[in-house]
Amino acid sequence: MTQPPPPPARPALVSIRVITDDVAGLAAFYEQVTGAPVAWSTPDFAELRTPIGTVAIGSTRTVALFGAGSARPADNHTVIVEFLVEDVDAEYVRLQEFAPEFVNEPTTMPWGNRSLLLRDPDGNLVNLFTPVTPEARARAGR
């Protein structure tokens, strides 16, 4: 009797790519937020590697490689890029002089994370959060 093939492995999320007209400016922002150094592949593509995943930054000039018009810079209204941090209140103080816009101050959310929402230079939402309840810490593996 022939065995059925094993199910395919689940895809692994490895990066989030942000398309921009200003790769250097956005790379500098995410370098400041994450503390990760920028790794440049070309002037049109940079990556910041964190322990869990990578923030990739691509120029609008790269969009045609995927399909002309398939992405537009500074036009995101649905995705929030999130970073787990040790102390969201300390991050708020640290980023005061650098972040272009804070959407809120550190706030404890109903699901147990203390969260700080800000915008990157292209207007994309960025959430820095610290789990503060036992349930939230467990979800984050802390």
Summarize the structure.
Helix content is 21%, strand content 32%. With 142 residues, it is an alpha+beta fold. It has two domains: 11-70, 2-Layer Sandwich (Signal recognition particle alu RNA binding heterodimer, srp9/1); 76-142, Roll (2,3-Dihydroxybiphenyl 1,2-Dioxygenase, domain 1).
Structural notes for this entry:
By secondary structure, the protein is of the alpha+beta class. The protein folds into 2 domains: 11-70, 2-Layer Sandwich (Signal recognition particle alu RNA binding heterodimer, srp9/1), CATH 3.30.720; 76-142, 2,3-Dihydroxybiphenyl 1,2-Dioxygenase, domain 1, CATH 3.10.180.10. 21% of the residues lie in helices and 32% in strands. The protein contains 4 helices and 9 strands. The protein has helices spanning 23-34, 63-66, 88-95, 134-139, and strands at 15-20, 38-42, 45-49, 54-59, 80-84, 101-102, 107-108, 113-119, 125-131. The strands form 2 sheets. Strands 5, 6, 7, 8 and 9 form a 5-stranded mixed beta sheet that branches. Strands 1-4-3-2 form a 4-stranded mixed beta sheet, covered by helices on one side. A hairpin with a 4-residue loop joins strand 3 and strand 4. The longest helix is centred in the first third of the chain and has 12 residues, at 23-34. The protein is globular.
